[in-house]
């Protein structure tokens, strides 16, 4: 049986599209933790965000502790998971406070926990404190069937500390996270703004260099999450190429709509080279 020319052309176009895209919609949408963390988030925006997460079939929503119970209600019967931030955004809560926040979040229905390390203690080289802080959250979460993503907030670590370069400090923290029981190590909160010499605040968030470093510093049993500055489809694809399995994003609709747009016109789209894909541009 011979294929008609039009049919054959369509098959070849789709084959070309998927070979260039490398990943299915489900693989890419399944990486996204839809972020609902802005300080001004209203109840209506929470509900709209949960509806969007279901519509786009993402992995989870990442929300603040007070909203867990309501979010669980909104997502009941769907496959979208509920994740909650702990010690957010600066990681300065006492360890027992972080543990108790984790307990409450899990009791309310959260199944993923995104905790922030105590950055000041890390910069001071108090490794025992940093480790115990992470362990307390991991033990509480794991006992309640939840998984933990540990946020390093890499922008604060660029200059290094405790006699280590920035890169070596990040590597050491990755190893501490793994030993303490983390399921993921995460780049950023999306809110770690650094004050520059000019008094202005800047922020990079996830960078390709940090994702490579973190993936190499952890064993395969620990996953990597990017957060901060991933706002387009090519950025998400690059994040996956670099070994991350999750990505925090608030531009979820724009990212995944672009996938459908390319799918509708696969033969005309030429992806930009990797160097044009912006990571490390800050924020969610």
Structure description:
- The chain is an alpha/beta fold and 284 residues long.
- It has a single domain, classed as Aldolase class I (TIM Barrel).
- It is 45% helix and 14% strand.
- The chain is built from 11 helices and 10 strands.
- It has an 8-stranded parallel β-barrel, surrounded by 7 helices.
- A hairpin with a 5-residue loop joins strand 7 (194-195) and strand 8 (201-202).
- Helix 5 (95-108) runs parallel beside helix 7 (127-143), helix 7 (127-143) runs parallel beside helix 8 (166-180) and helix 8 packs across helix 9.
- The longest helix is centred in the first third of the chain and has 17 residues, at 5-21.
- It is globular and about 55 Å long.
- The termini are far apart.
- 43% of the residues are buried.
Query: For this structure, what is the CATH homologous superfamily?
Result: Aldolase class I
Structural class: alpha/beta
Calculate the mean pLDDT score and round it.
91
The helical percent reads: 40-55%
Strand % is 5-15%
Poorly predicted ranges (pLDDT <50, ≥5 residues)?
5-15
Distance between the termini: 52 Å
Major sheet: order of its strands?
1-2-3-4-5-6-9-10
Return the CATH architecture.
Answer: Alpha-Beta Barrel
Total strand count, please?
A: 10
| Radius of gyration over all CA atoms, rounded | 20 Å
Q: Which H/E pattern describes the elements? A: HHEHEHEHEHHEHEEEHEHEH
Output the CATH class name: Alpha Beta
Find the CATH topology. TIM Barrel
Helix count equals 11
What spatial form do the alpha-carbon principal axes imply? globular
Number of domains: 1
What does the main sheet amount to? 8 strands, parallel, barrel
